TrEMBL record:
Gene3D superfamilies: 3.40.630.30. It comes from the Eukaryota. It comes from Xylaria bambusicola. This is N-acetyltransferase domain-containing protein. The lineage of its organism: Eukaryota, Fungi, Dikarya, Ascomycota, Pezizomycotina. Residues 115-183 form the N-acetyltransferase domain. GO terms for molecular function: acyltransferase activity, transferring groups other than amino-acyl groups.
Length: 246
């Protein structure tokens, strides 16, 4: 049975700030909310309907990021999120029946929740370089989003730590891999960054993952293509990172 939330679970500093609840691909409310969050994220909203099938097949392990009800800052954080995204005011129900091919039993203590992000732990991906294989003990982190109203508060790191713990303890994973935009695409003088009017980041995605124990092992020169406001296409390079789960 898939573990979810334990209201007594605590970290060294008190109650953990977040936990994860599986996304239900058969719930229209879950699907609609995922589309809202992908719009807020800025991309892949057109892929949500396709995720329904991969989630049903146990290939995708898409989870909602939920604020822990026992954490003292959760009420104020939820208020900030809903102020920024009033369309997400309706609570969802934990209705998912299975995740990554395993039965899921909803936590009766938390029948309703307001997701403030989502994260996927996938057993099948379309990128060979990620080496995703549950049989080989390698799962891949995908489609990671935290509400823009709650970023830089440690919730992303907490969600990733929870995901890593779940990968190891529930699925016997030995490692997690992921793909993110390469540092070379984010430098101040990058023609791509300038053309797309992307901000200069204080901390790049690649550096953020590196700080959390992930190491670059490969790169792709063209991972995807972005289009600027003039219609010009910009091939985008990526880095592959891996973390051993010890």
């Amino acid at each position: 049975m898939m573990a979810t939330h334990n209201s007594t679970e605590e970290s060294a500093g008190g109650p953990v700030p977040v936990y994860l609840v599986p996304w239900d691909p058969d719930s229209q409310e879950h699907v609609d909310r995922m589309k809202l969050q992908r719009i807020a994220c800025g991309w892949k909203v057109d892929q949500v309907d396709g995720w329904r099938e991969t989630q049903r097949k146990g290939q995708s392990g898409l989870h909602w990021v939920i604020l822990h009800p026992d954490h003292p800052e959760s009420p104020s954080r939820l208020k900030s999120h809903l102020a920024a995204y009033p369309g997400e005011a309706q609570a969802l129900s934990d209705t998912c029946k299975a995740i990554l091919g395993r039965p899921h039993k909803p936590d009766p203590l938390v029948p309703y929740f307001h997701p403030v992000g989502h994260i996927a732990l996938d057993s099948v991906t379309s990128v060979p370089e990620l080496r995703t294989s549950l049989a080989d003990g390698i799962l891949s982190l995908m489609n990671f989003y935290i509400s823009s109203a709650l970023q830089n508060r440690g919730l992303g790191g907490a969600a990733m730590t929870y995901c890593e713990k779940m990968a190891k303890e529930e699925f016997g994973a030995k490692a997690i891999t992921l793909e993110t935009i390469a540092n070379s695409e984010c430098v101040p003088d990058s023609p791509r960054r300038i053309a797309l009017k992307r901000p200069v980041l204080a901390v790049t995605n690649e550096d953020w993952y590196t700080r959390h124990g992930y190491k670059v092992y490969a790169q792709r020169k063209v991972a995807w293509v972005d289009v600027d406001e003039t219609g010009k296409e910009w091939p985008t390079g990526s880095s592959m990172l891996r973390k051993e789960l010890v």
